Amino acid sequence: MSDLAIETAGLRKEYGDKVAVADLTLAVPRGEVFGFLGPNGAGKSTSVKMLLGLVRPSAGWAQVLGCAPGDPAAMRRVGFLPEHFRFHEWLPAAEFLDLHGRLLQMDRETRRRRIPEVLELVGLSEHARRPLSDFSKGMLQRVGLAQALLNDPELVFLDEPTSALDPFGRMLVRSVIRGLRERGTTVFLNSHLLGEVEATCDRVAFIREGRVLRTIALRDLGAEQVEVELRLDRLDPELLAWLREISGDRVQVTGEQQRKGAADGLDASEPASPVSCQLTIDSEELLPLIAARAVASGARLYALTPRRLSLEQLFLDVVGDRDSGA
Fold first, then answer.
1. Rounded to an integer, what distance in angstroms lies between the CA atom of residue 281 and that of residue 247?
2. What are phi and psi of 82, to 5 degrees?
3. Which of 93, 238, 242, 261 is deepest in the core (most CB within 10 A)?
4. What does the alpha-carbon distance between residue 262 and residue 242 come to, in Å, rounded to a whole number?
5. What pLDDT was estimated at residue 157?
6. Which pLDDT does position 309 carry in this prediction?
7. Angle 261-263-269 (CA atoms, 0-180°, nearest 5)?
């Protein structure tokens, strides 16, 4: 058995002249919670549909649980909650799940045992006999999650699973995902809520225009880069040049750098406006050195504030801030 739940190489999908996915290459280990991030129109939904066998790729290769996408042997071990779900509104929740259990070829005894378990898992036990037409959008999303977990899958695709949920519902879904990880279930999570991704995922891939730009383990996110803000009374050229050197020229300066004094006919004793300097460094080990160099330059150091690089900032750095318009 392969250690990978999902593996793709050069996966591509074209719709006429439009390229929806250009070159998708992924490797998702079993038991991992994997985040799939990108702007609207990046090809995320089309990628998921190809992995599920719902859309045939134009080129490339993929395996899901060691089988070709759409292979019944694999799909019986896969769960899926789509972003735009349409359920049978006239059915009570328990009957809806029983229908999906029969579609999954689950025997009657297994269905009778499993349906109450998944309803309890998503906090809907008291609504088992209530028709879905009476459910709020958040409740429908939770019963959709129950449907995705009904067959105790080895791999679960969750497409925006918390988009309609209130804070309680989001905490519940986080708890469910953590429980799946503890059981060794692989979760493929597509979400635009970066806080939810950061709280639940082991690794994330950033995708744009159908290509994976970068994959990172979230445990490395905090240790990877540090944003630093310096507030000084002045910033001399030598210190600025050194800051640019240690940050790879990732420096932004705002505010008045220094008074020109008598040369401009100003009172040199008049206090200057503080200078704000933002830079990104690769290690917090540089922080004491930055403080020492700032003081040694003769400047007054009002503040030195380090901030860990957030997933949101990393997303903007990798993917860019240009809206696709989709």
1. 5
2. -75, 160
3. 93
4. 28
5. 95
6. 67
7. 15
CA–CA dist 65, 184 (Å, integer): 13
Burial 58-67 (b: 16+ CB within 10 A, else e): eebebbbbeb
CA atoms within 13 A on the CB side of 213: 17
Between strands 33-37 and 203-208, the pairing is parallel
Residue 2 in contact with residue 63, Cβ under 8 Å? yes
Q: 14-39 burial, b for 16+ CB within 10 Å, e for fewer? A: eeeeebbbbbbbbebebbbbbbbbbb
HEC profile of the chain? CCCEEEEEEEEEEEECCEEEEEEEEEEEECCCEEEEECCCCCCHHHHHHHHCCCCCCCEEEEEECCECCCCHHHHCCEEEECCCCCCCCCCEHHHHHHHHHHHCCCCHHHHHHHHHHHHHHCCCHHHCCCEHHHCCHHHHHHHHHHHHHCCCCCEEEEECCCCCCCHHHHHHHHHHHHHHHHCCCEEEEECCCHHHHHHHCCEEEEEECCEEEEEEEHHHHHHHCEEEEEEECCCCHHHHHHHHHHCCCCEEEECCCCCCHHHHCCCCCCCCCCEEEEEEECCHHHHHHHHHHHHHCCCCEEEEEEEECCHHHHHHHHHCCCCCCC
Q: For residue 47, give both structure tokens.
A: 């990628």
Nearest to 151 by CA among 97, 83, 222: 97
Q: What is the value of pTM for the model shown?
A: 0.74
Give how far the C-alpha of residue 322 lies from the chain's centroid of Cα atoms, to the nearest Å: 18
> Mean pLDDT of residues grouped by 10 in the chain (326 residues)?
88 91 92 89 88 93 92 91 86 95 93 96 94 92 94 92 84 92 93 81 88 82 75 91 88 66 44 81 86 92 83 72 53
Alpha-carbon span 298 to 218, nearest angstrom:
39
Euclidean distance between CA atoms 293 and 322, whole angstroms: 37
At residue 2, the pLDDT reads: 74
Distance separating alpha carbons of residues 153 and 185, to the nearest angstrom = 7
